[in-house]
Every structure is written in structure tokens, then in C-alpha cells.
Write a structure and sequence with these properties.
The protein is mainly α. The chain is 63% helix and 0% strand.
Length: 68
């Protein structure tokens, strides 16, 4: 299971940017990088939903509050 490493602000920003990128895919069908927009948008939205980012895990970054 993925450990939570994203804080609330980070999750909200990722969700907003992900939704915008997914919307761009549908709004501009002739866009040069439409598939890249869709893939990156889905990844950002998925990481926002599960509160975990694999790249953050690799580098040991945590933006969420920890219970210590």
C-alpha cells in the first residue's frame, strides 16, 4: 500500500491542475500534445485522490502533517 505523503494544499493543487489538463484534452482536440495532457492530468488526479506520490517517496519528501 502506498504511504500518505501529500498534504491538503498539495492535493488540491494537483487535483485542479489535473482536471484542467484533462479538460484541455477534450476542449482542444487538435492540440499538439493532447495525449500528454491527458496522461499527466490523470496521473495528477490519481495521486491527489490516493494522497501519495511515488516521486515524493523516492526523494523522501512529505508535505502532509505527521503524527509523532
Amino acid at each position: 500500500m502506498l504511504k500518505k505523503n501529500l498534504g491538503t494544499i498539495d492535493r488540491v493543487i494537483r487535483a485542479i491542475v489535473g482536471i484542467v489538463l484533462i479538460a484541455l484534452y477534450f476542449i482542444y482536440p487538435d492540440m499538439a500534445y493532447k495525449w500528454l495532457s491527458l496522461i499527466v492530468g490523470l496521473i495528477l488526479l490519481f495521486t491527489a485522490i490516493v494522497s501519495s506520490c511515488p516521486i515524493y517517496s523516492i526523494f523522501g519528501i512529505r508535505t502532509c502533517k505527521t503524527d509523532q
